[in-house]
Specification:
96 residues; mainly alpha; 4 helices; 0% strand; elongated
Length: 96
C-alpha cells in the first residue's frame, strides 16, 4: 500500500493526470481514505497549472511511513528492559 500511495503522491505532485486516473482505477484505490480519493480526482480533473496541492495525500503518505517504519527505535518493555529503572546522567560541576 505504501508503494501505491507513493506512486499516487508522485503523480499528484507532477500533475500527471493520466497516471493519476490509472492509479485511481486500480483496486488499491478503494482502500484510500475518502478525502484522499476526492483530492486525487480533483487534481486529475483540474488544469496542470492549478494551485491545488495534494495535502491530504501527502499527510496520508506521511502517516503510513511512520506506521511502517521498521527502523524506528521501539522501546523494549519486556522483562529485563530499562522500564522501571532510573538512568544516571553524568553531570559536571558548574563553577559560579
Amino acid at each position: 500500500m505504501l508503494a501505491y500511495v507513493d506512486s499516487l503522491c508522485a503523480a499528484l505532485l507532477a500533475r500527471n493526470q493520466v497516471e493519476i486516473r490509472r492509479l485511481l482505477s486500480l483496486s488499491s484505490a478503494a482502500k484510500l481514505p475518502h478525502n484522499v480519493r476526492e483530492e486525487a480526482a480533483a487534481v486529475a480533473k483540474g488544469r496542470t497549472n492549478s494551485f491545488l496541492a495534494p495535502v491530504h495525500a501527502l499527510q496520508y503518505y506521511y502517516k503510513l511511513t511512520h506506521l511502517i517504519d521498521e527502523t524506528a527505535d521501539v522501546p523494549d518493555i519486556g522483562p529485563g528492559s530499562m522500564s522501571g529503572r532510573q538512568l544516571d546522567l553524568p553531570l559536571r560541576a558548574v563553577n559560579s
